[in-house]
TrEMBL record:
It comes from Syncephalastrum racemosum. PPR repeats lie at residues 289-324, 360-394, 768-802, 803-833, 1052-1086. The keyword NADP does not apply. SUPFAM superfamilies: TPR-like (SSF48452). NCBIfam families: PPR. Keywords: Repeat. It comes from the Eukaryota. Residues 18-40, 1029-1048 are annotated as: Disordered. This is Pentacotripeptide-repeat region of PRORP domain-containing protein. The keyword Zinc does not apply. InterPro entries: Mito_RNA-Proc/Resp, PPR_rpt, TPR-like_helical_dom_sf. GO terms for molecular function: mRNA binding. Residues 18-29 have a biased composition (Basic residues).
Length: 1098
């Protein structure tokens, strides 16, 4: 018997529970909650999407006495803007609108507060405290919260409590592993999220609103309470649940209760609840009973009843046909390890190996952790080797513990191998583990191994981790130096070079003070020959310059000594120190009043020809200025007469830009002339090999871009090969231009994009906004959202600014992949971006999504209204989408759709195009099955002297085929071939495949399908189209003539789908499977393949 029987749930109370459930469901829900002064139409549902939808339509409660109709309208509009910002995923915009309402003294309703609170709940960054959310709720005090308000906050507090639990557990494990205490734990635990949640729940009950809460709220509360073994509060929550007419306990409820009571030591009560669960199990519908049984196993273990736990696992679950997973076995393994029963733990894990359920990382982890804690390296090593056979991506703590154990036992190489295993599994070492690994090699005087370890751990750490671990890594790195018998300058410079990734993260002080002191001390104590050798290496010289700049008072003496050390050298400092760094030192020396040293530095480092170079740059700028004015001939004349004729070389950077500008203007001959003259000058007049090669590279890269962007890939490829022969690689813009230029001939643009991206990344090419825009656009076109999102995140990581084109491409990727949430989030982010420039494209993308993928006329008009509000001019495509919203989304509004033809002329001076008429034809003929009206629109377009294009013919053909008029469709197709040049698009062929399939003439559908190709580059000779062959006769299908040339139509995913449906409609399942197999050979996205596979395999 339990000593504290807080829960009373025996057989009688189980019957009472069922009776109360039955009675409560017969009771009618109160028509008005107790707070009758609140507009009952604003009692929110618990579905966030429903809430969003209702927020547009529901009336706002009346303001305080004296409010006007105008005030009501302002409140309603402000709430609408908050809702729009929330839907767009823009929390900042939500808070700006909220603050604006308060500033204007507009009355804030619980409707407003619910929107703001819900925005925080759905958009907050994981791991952030709830201070701002709770402050908003406190502000709400004069207004009575609804059940929806309580639901938002209860879910949020429970979620935050779980985050805190996980973080605290992780920090404690880290502290135990490293021996370093953390100051974060008290602050996290003081948040008191579970206490706040219970206070809110009691308040909700007192307001008679708890009966409206859904079961998941009760279960979340019970789960967080179970962590603390808080039986009293759990009893209160459970009692309210069994009183509720809107919710009833499910398996998750009982699993949480049993787990809680086991943790509290109230085993008898846990068993009583288990019996209650069994009595209700058959009434719960389909569910996974293993969660409840696993909770019972855990409860027995927490009460030290191992035999009973094993009985449930090995007998009861088997007898009751309950699925057995590895989870309860892992609980038993943790039980053994916590009590030091390692032999039993190993015996159990050996029994499980090679059987079902399969062991996982959580099976070996507790055993490894126990051995690490006991310092038993040999046993831990055996267990680590076993752990490696599982997925270790979530086993960081155990891996780190074992690595530290290896270091403690002098096994440095083994410890480093563990870190490599971590990295291979997608984990990164923390600063403490990294520092101790480096220090181990330093203490053993293994200089090269220590440096290699330093370089490896930095490569493995994210920028954020490097920034946080800077001090630890620098101290460990300096230990390597101090551990040597002699602190040599070359050693310190080698360490400074190895620390480059850490130094790159330093913004306030690029070169740490302690490293600068160590480096300059080593410099002053070094022999003259060592100084000279160090100064003659570009990277080392840069480190010495940065150290001298950091130790401000040492700069003058160091610069003087550096000039003296290199006075007799064949290669001066000007060859190794970059102009930018030289200029910084010169400026600092001048500010310090070191006039003599500054003058000597200017002559020796910046070169006596510095003034000539400046004058040359001014004249080169005149070349660029002429180019930008579109005067390419004048630009060439200035280059020849004012630079080359005087024996000078033009500025490489300025000529690079001039070539690029003229190339973009389409004057490739002029661009090539500038390129040729520049390269000749560089070869003749720049003596230094590195400088000359860099100048030629800049010009060659620029001319490559010019040819690639104009589609001349043969010449572009020639310059690409030249750049590689020079030992360079194209820059980000050049790679992007190559990708753009190859678009007309690539068989798979997305694959090409990723190939070029990988090559650029492999060669450490600095990415640009243009580069990312092109790659993301190609991925968007192929509906490859995940890699597009990865690249977008990478832009932020590398601090490459996103512009309107970037956002447009990303929104397009989301829309094409059907990801509404991501699309709306990015759209909102775009509107609030400082770099945002108004463009119609992203608005069209969002409108198109709600026209074609998730039809919603109201949303289409919402985005069109926002476009108008921002004074962005619609395009012809915008009007086409508007027409589709009225003509293609039921209930059809054809008068308004027709009116758009005159509206676009009247308001935006846009001329209707054939595509607009195609929209009307499609609606009448295909959606409304009104071929006569479709014919009238076709005639109306002809009367307006508009020539039908392929889109119009496609709409007419769709109308005829959909209405079983295949003969007319074939005649219309013949007319189309006579009137226009048909593209390689397969959609008309798809229509005929569908039509022939429905008609039962599968052989005609096959003829069309087989006449198409999977190769975008293939050209064949054919006297007529595949459809004409299919129309004429069996004997003519697929015949070829050598009279005419045409581009074979390429199969798209929709083509495969149409052919599969044609076969399935005619009972030819094996043929449909063959088409699916052929489709799988193409590199289509999995989501596209799944659509067709579902048809075949259902």
């Amino acid at each position: 018997m339990s000593t504290s029987p807080i829960f009373i749930c025996g057989t009688n109370s189980c019957k009472d529970y069922k009776k109360r459930q039955h009675t409560s469901r017969r009771r009618s829900r109160p028509s008005t909650p107790p707070d009758t002064d609140v507009d009952t139409s604003l009692i929110y549902k618990h579905n966030a999407k429903e809430d969003d939808q209702r927020a547009v339509d529901l009336p706002t409660p009346p303001p305080s006495p004296g409010g006007s109709e105008r005030c009501l309208t302002a409140v309603h509009e402000a709430n609408g803007r908050i809702l729009a910002a929330k839907r767009a995923g823009n929390l900042k915009a939500v808070m700006v609108e909220f603050a604006s309402m308060k500033k204007q003294n507009l009355p804030l309703t619980h409707h407003t507060y619910n929107l703001v609170l819900d925005a925080h709940a759905s958009l907050r960054r994981e791991g952030t405290p709830l201070t701002s959310v709770l402050n908003i709720f406190q502000e709400m005090a004069p207004i009575s919260p609804s059940s929806y308000t309580y639901a938002i906050l209860l879910r949020l507090l429970c979620k935050r409590d779980v985050e805190v639990q996980k973080t605290v557990a992780m920090l404690r494990r880290q502290s135990a592993r490293t021996g370093q205490s953390t100051e974060d734990i008290p602050g996290l635990e003081s948040e008191g999220n579970v206490s706040r949640a219970m206070a809110l729940f009691r308040e909700c009950h007192e307001q008679n609103l708890a009966w409206e809460l859904e079961i998941d709220i009760y279960n979340q509360l019970l789960r967080v309470l179970s962590h603390y073994g808080n039986a009293a509060d759990a009893q209160f929550v459970y009692d309210r649940l069994i009183e509720s007419p809107a919710a009833k306990p499910n398996s998750a409820t009982f699993a949480a209760l049993i787990n809680l009571l086991g943790r509290a030591g109230l085993l008898e009560d846990a068993l009583t609840f288990f019996e209650t669960y069994k009595s209700l199990r058959d009434d719960m519908g389909a569910h996974d009973a293993s969660y409840v049984y696993n909770a019972l196993v855990d409860a027995y273990l927490k009460c030290d009843r191992l035999d009973d736990a094993l009985r449930v696992l090995e007998h009861d679950m088997v007898m009751n046909n309950v699925k057995i997973t590895i989870i309860p076995y892992n609980s038993i393994l943790r039980h053994y390890c916590a009590r030091g029963q390692m032999d039993l733990a190993r015996k159990l894990v050996r029994k499980l190996e090679g059987s079902e359920p399969a062991v996982d990382a959580s099976s070996y982890g507790p055993i490894l952790a126990a051995y690490c804690q006991a310092g038993q390296w040999q046993e831990a090593s055996t267990m680590y080797d076993a752990l490696l056979r599982t997925n270790i991506s979530k086993a960081y703590g155990n891996l780190a513990s074992y690595s530290l154990l290896c270091l403690a036992h002098g096994q440095g190489e083994r410890a480093l191998k563990v870190v490599r295993d971590m990295v291979q599994a997608g984990l990164e070492p923390d600063a403490v583990l990294s520092s101790r690994s480096i220090s181990h090699f330093a203490r053993h005087h293994a200089f090269h191994e220590a440096v290699a370890c330093l370089e490896f751990v930095q490569e493995s750490m994210s920028t954020r981790s490097l920034t946080k671990g800077t001090n630890n890594l620098i101290k460990s790195a300096l230990q390597i130096v101090h551990a040597q018998a002699e602190c040599r300058l070359s050693h310190v410079l080698r360490i400074a070079q190895a620390l480059s990734p850490v130094l790159a993260t330093q913004q306030q002080q690029p070169f740490p003070l302690i490293l600068a002191e160590t480096l300059l001390n080593a410099y002053w104590n070094a022999p003259s020959q060592d100084k000279r050798e160090a100064l003659m290496q570009s990277t080392y010289a840069s480190h010495l310059c940065e150290a001298a700049l950091t130790l401000d008072t040492c700069l003058g003496p160091w610069a003087d000594d550096a000039l003296a050390s290199c006075a007799d050298s064949d290669m001066g400092l000007s060859m190794v120190i970059t102009p930018a760094l030289s200029s910084r030192i010169l400026t600092r020396l001048q500010k310090q009043g070191e006039v003599q040293i500054a003058s000597a530095w200017h002559v020796a480092v910046m070169g006596p020809a510095a003034l000539d170079e400046e004058r040359g740059a001014e004249i080169s700028s005149a070349v660029l200025s002429a180019a930008m004015r579109g005067r390419s001939t004048e630009a060439i004349r200035i280059l020849e007469r004012k630079i080359l004729s005087r024996g000078q070389a033009p500025s490489p950077e300025i000529l690079r830009d001039a070539i690029s500008v003229i190339g973009k203007q389409g004057e490739l001959d002029a661009a090539a002339t500038l390129y040729r003259l520049s390269v000749e000058a560089y070869n003749q007049r720049i003596q230094d090999g590195k400088t000359r090669a860099h100048a030629i590279y800049l010009a060659t890269n620029s001319i490559l871009i010019s040819y690639a962007q104009k589609g001349d890939m043969v010449r572009a490829k020639e310059y690409y090969d030249q750049i590689k022969e020079m030992g360079f690689f194209p820059d980000g813009n050049a790679y992007a231009s190559l990708l753009l230029g190859s678009a007309t001939c690539a068989t798979d643009e997305a694959t090409d994009a990723l190939t070029i991206y990988d090559e650029a990344k492999r060669h450490n090419v600095k990415p640009t906004t243009f580069f990312y825009n092109v790659v993301i656009s190609k991925l968007a076109k192929a509906r490859k959202l995940e890699p597009a999102l990865m690249l977008f995140d990478e832009m932020r990581q590398f601090k490459v600014p996103a512009n309107s084109i970037t956002f447009g491409a990303m929104i397009s990727a989301c829309v094409r992949a059907g990801s509404e949430v991501q699309a709306r989030r990015l759209f909102g982010e775009m509107l609030s971006s400082p770099s945002y420039q108004p463009r119609v494209g992203p608005f069209n993308n969002m409108m198109q999504f709600y026209v074609r993928q998730q039809p919603d006329r109201a949303r289409v008009l919402e985005y069109f209204g926002e476009l108008r509000r921002r004074h962005i001019k619609p395009s012809a495509h915008t009007y086409k989408l508007l027409m589709e919203a009225y003509a293609s989304i039921a209930p059809y509004d054809m008068p308004t759709a027709h009116r758009m033809l005159t509206e676009m002329v009247r308001r935006d001076n846009l001329v209707p195009q054939a595509a607009h008429y195609a929209t009307l034809i499609y609606s009448y003929g295909s959606l409304q099955r009104d071929v006569k009206s479709a014919d009238r629109v076709f005639a109306e377009m002809t009367k307006a002297k508009l020539r039908p294009d392929e889109a119009v013919y496609q709409a007419m053909l769709d109308a005829l085929i959909s209405n079983d008029q295949l003969d007319r469709a074939e005649a219309m197709y013949t007319r189309m071939l006579r009137d226009i040049t048909k593209s390689a698009s397969p959609y008309i062929e798809n229509l005929f495949i569908r039509g022939y399939g429905r008609k039962g003439t599968v052989y005609k559908a096959e003829a069309i399908f087989e006449a198409m190709s999977d190769d975008k580059l293939l050209h064949v000779h054919s006297s007529s189209s595949a459809i004409s062959h299919a129309r004429n006769s069996d004997s003519q299908i697929g015949t070829e003539s050598k009279q005419e040339s045409r581009t074979v139509v390429v199969r798209e995913p929709s083509t495969y789908e149409a052919m599969v449906i044609a076969y399935l409609d005619n009972g030819m399942h094996h043929k449909a499977k063959e088409v699916l197999d052929r489709m799988i050979q193409r590199d289509f996205p999995p989501k596209v393949l799944a659509t067709v596979a579902d048809l075949v395999l259902e």
